[in-house]
């Protein structure tokens, strides 16, 4: 049986600051990134899975850090926060760069608008209808609520695109995004339907990835002299993680006690570092994607180091040293 049901991190799928994630020259489009066009399809698929999994890990470790804080375990909280930052800055960012994911502001806005439109009009509406059929009213209500939020995001991104394109001197990039953080509490799942649980987990992966992308898009906007667009992305990123992901996490019972959270993290990091990334590296090397193979190999080392640090933290909890 998969540990705590969280092996779905690897399957695919701000607030730790606004560090520079991807250095893309001004005016560069997505396809201009070296290696993005000629990457083997299998390497590209593996890289996307890896990036989405690390975005998920970032969001999960932020939640685990908050739980460690509630349990008065400051050293464990700091470890989870550092690891969350490492997942986002040290793993998601270079993987996104390898994929050529961050383009110019116009391209990023087109991608953002399309993504929000799909979630609003297709994904969340379907999930809500299925949750209603599954007699899961809490999930149905949440899916409908998030669909409405995504509609407002779509509208704002569309307005921002018009403003950036200069089609209307009266159109300004909107920044009126209100973030209402939800606390992720330790607890058991609040849904029993397998289908609705799968949909919640799919949605969580999507929200975690959207958060990571929008943080990178914000950095792109800042680097190109568009501070209002950066603010729009930063605030929308926080809605995706601190509201949508958090509310879904509570329904799925994502967070448990810190000891259990550490064991889950150890299993995830060990599998990624010892099996998944080495396999990706081998496949990329066989396909001639040397840079990607090296990136996967470096990621494997990072993941195993994370697992070791989590093991040490778990031992400290067992001996009572983690609260000091």
TrEMBL record:
<dbReference type="InterPro" id="IPR052753">
    <property type="entry name" value="Rbr2/Nigerythrin"/>
</dbReference>
<protein>
    <recommendedName>
        <fullName>Ferritin-like diiron domain-containing protein</fullName>
    </recommendedName>
</protein>
<feature type="domain" description="Ferritin-like diiron">
    <location>
        <begin position="190"/>
        <end position="321"/>
    </location>
</feature>
<dbReference type="GO" id="GO:0016491">
    <property type="term" value="F:oxidoreductase activity"/>
</dbReference>
<dbReference type="InterPro" id="IPR009040">
    <property type="entry name" value="Ferritin-like_diiron"/>
</dbReference>
<dbReference type="InterPro" id="IPR012347">
    <property type="entry name" value="Ferritin-like"/>
</dbReference>
<keyword id="KW-0732">Signal</keyword>
<feature type="signal peptide">
    <location>
        <begin position="1"/>
        <end position="28"/>
    </location>
</feature>
<feature type="domain" description="Ferritin-like diiron">
    <location>
        <begin position="37"/>
        <end position="168"/>
    </location>
</feature>
<dbReference type="Pfam" id="PF02915">
    <property type="entry name" value="Rubrerythrin"/>
</dbReference>
<dbReference type="InterPro" id="IPR009078">
    <property type="entry name" value="Ferritin-like_SF"/>
</dbReference>
<dbReference type="InterPro" id="IPR003251">
    <property type="entry name" value="Rr_diiron-bd_dom"/>
</dbReference>
<dbReference type="GO" id="GO:0046872">
    <property type="term" value="F:metal ion binding"/>
</dbReference>
């Amino acid at each position: 049986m998969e540990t705590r049901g969280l092996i779905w991190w690897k399957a695919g799928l701000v607030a730790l600051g606004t560090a520079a994630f991807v250095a893309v020259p001004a005016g560069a489009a997505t396809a201009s990134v070296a290696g993005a066009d000629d990457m083997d399809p299998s390497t590209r698929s593996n890289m996307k899975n890896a990036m989405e999994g690390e975005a998920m890990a970032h969001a999960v470790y932020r939640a685990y850090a908050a739980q460690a804080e509630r349990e008065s375990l400051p050293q464990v909280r700091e470890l989870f926060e550092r690891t969350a930052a490492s997942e986002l800055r040290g793993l998601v960012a270079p993987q996104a760069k390898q994929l050529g994911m961050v383009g110019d502001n116009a391209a990023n806005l087109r991608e953002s608008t399309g993504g929000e439109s799909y979630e609003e009009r297709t994904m969340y509406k379907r999930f809500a209808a299925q949750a209603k059929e599954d007699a899961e009213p809490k999930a149905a209500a949440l899916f409908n609520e998030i669909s409405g939020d995504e509609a407002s995001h779509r509208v704002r991104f569309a307005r921002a695109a018009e403003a950036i394109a200069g089609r209307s001197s009266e159109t300004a990039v909107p920044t009126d995004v209100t973030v209402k953080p939800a606390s992720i509490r330790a607890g058991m799942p609040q849904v029993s339907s397998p289908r609705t649980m799968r949909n919640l987990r799919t949605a969580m992966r999507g929200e975690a990835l959207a958060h990571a992308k929008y943080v990178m898009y914000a950095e792109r906007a800042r680097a190109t002299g568009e501070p209002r667009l950066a603010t729009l992305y930063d605030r929308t990123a926080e809605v995706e993680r601190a509201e949508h992901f958090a509310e879904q996490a509570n329904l799925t019972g994502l967070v448990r006690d810190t000891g259990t959270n550490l064991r889950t993290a150890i299993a995830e990091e060990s599998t990624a570092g010892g099996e998944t990334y080495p396999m990706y590296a081998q496949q990329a090397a066989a396909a001639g994607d040397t840079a990607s193979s090296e990136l996967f190999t470096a990621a494997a080392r990072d993941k195993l180091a994370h697992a070791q640090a989590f093991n040490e933290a778990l031992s400290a909890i067992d001996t009572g040293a983690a609260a000091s």
